[in-house]
Amino acid sequence: MSNLIILGAQWGDEGKGKLVDILADRFDYIVRYQGGNNAGHTIWIGERKFVLRLVPSGILHPGKTAVIGNGLVVDPIGLFEEVESLNAAGIDAEKQLRISNRAQVLFPSHRLVEKISEMAPGRTPIGTTLKGIGPCYEDKIGRRGIRMADLLDRSYFRETVKALIADHQTRARAFGIDDAIDADDIADRYAEAAERMRPMICDTSALLNQAMRDGKNLLFEGAQGTMLDIDHGTYPFVTSSSSSAGGACTGTGVPPTKITAVIGISKTYTTRVGGGPFPTEALDAAGDEIRNRGHEFGSVTGRPRRCGWFDTPVLRYSAAINGFETMVVTKLDVLDDLDEIPVCVAYSIDGKVTLDMPATVRELAKAEPIYETLPGWKSSTVGISDWDQLPAAAKRYVEFLEAKTGVEAGCVSTGPERTQTIVRAGSKFAKITG
Ligand code: GDP
Ligand code: IMO
Ligand code: MG
To answer: Would you list the DSSP string of 308-328?
Structure first.
């Protein structure tokens, strides 16, 4: 039996969707444990592109159960938009989906509240996805949120939802934000969505624990990335959930003793969307080249992603927090044309060389990357699926990342499609996933 966590080792968009889709065949349940429709996980199957937000990436495999765990914040309207687009592609998503009765419900008025922190004068915007994710988690922690089980309880829901929306409106108005929101209309639309979701909503913790007793395998799909984790990320420029490995347990009700492995996903360079320090950001032509070649534009918001070089301190920190000993390095092909490739091997902060991750963004903003520069390979790696076929300089680049991070690169991705993937023979990755 194997219960595996796949998660982002950097600031998100590392290629988690592609990997989860590749591995989903070997598992029975594909489980999201945090976040909401701020995530955008892209999967290419031939010419067809799918971008999954709330729905786990395993949905594209018929017969697999896709679980939205208790750790998520769920916008039912957004969920059904996603379900409809899957239906249009011939996937009966509702049949495969299960939603935790303890997941939080996200309302349009959460997006109103988000305007306070993101747009009100005097606030420092985080550069969020504006999906209402942070305010919904605020209500959860503030113990006033509405959960799926509450939504199904018709009279209780009617009583509480109006008070919650009124609270959101009062707070927004205090900041001069007075968007028209019709609480009755929202209550009606959500009550309707609740009836459609009713067959999918259940105690997913009980479901997953029973599945494990029956010998089934679980694949946990992280959203965002470790550096966006609410505790371990570059606070406050983070998301509002636990995107690191610990979140897989709190966000599903599966005990830590049942997790058998963790695999981190990292690009062969680094990207970040939104605000916050990014020590290896390339603000020159090289950054633009990576953005254009890697199509580095947000899959949810379309925003250009900030691009830069591989950051060893980030990966070492991420490996330590999540406990992964093998990683997937993605988008090697994006670096194909570069003459040379800098890799940050340590930071210098106030003249002190360190591999440690500072606790504050003020300190991290002072980090000057110390680079070692490797030669490029100047030839195409697109679609290569055999390690031995890689140009020597590309192999040396990947081996350099392994040596600096102390983490095996057991899998290398050379394109967005399923087949454009190298699994290294004899690697920990091959053992875990084999
Ligand atoms: P996720 O949020 O971690 O699932 O990643 P995203 O889907 O937001 O962003 C990753 C993007 O890179 C997607 O457009 C993928 O199709 C694409 N992608 C994944 N792996 C590779 C790769 O090895 N090479 C190239 N060129 N694109 C890749
Ligand atoms: P996937 O799962 C990249 C970023 C936002 C912002 C910060 C907070 O596709 O990797 P939020 O809306 O969550 O409150 O925004 O987090 N962010 C992501 N960046 N990939 C994601 O998801 C992200 N989800 C949120 O840009 O900086
Ligand atoms: Mg993404």
So the answer is: E-EEHHHHHHHHHHHT-SEEE
Residue 38 belongs to domain with CATH number:
3.40.440.10
39 Cα nearest atom in ligand 1:
2
- For 214-227, how does the pLDDT look when each residue is reduced to its tens digit (9 = 90+)? 999 999 999 999 99
Q: Which residues are catalytic?
A: 13, 41
DSSP H helices in 180-267: 183-197, 204-213, 246-250
Which residues span the domain enclosing 81? 3-100+203-258
Atom index in ligand 1 nearest the CA of residue 293 equals 26
How remote is the CA of residue 207 from the centroid of ligand 3, in Å?
28
Same domain, 79 and 226: yes
pLDDT one-digit tens code per residue, 258-296: 999 999 999 999 999 999 999 999 999 999 999 999 999
Pocket around ligand 1 at a 6 A CB cut-off: 8, 12-18, 40-42, 44, 295, 299, 330-331, 333-334, 413-416
pTM given for the model:
0.98
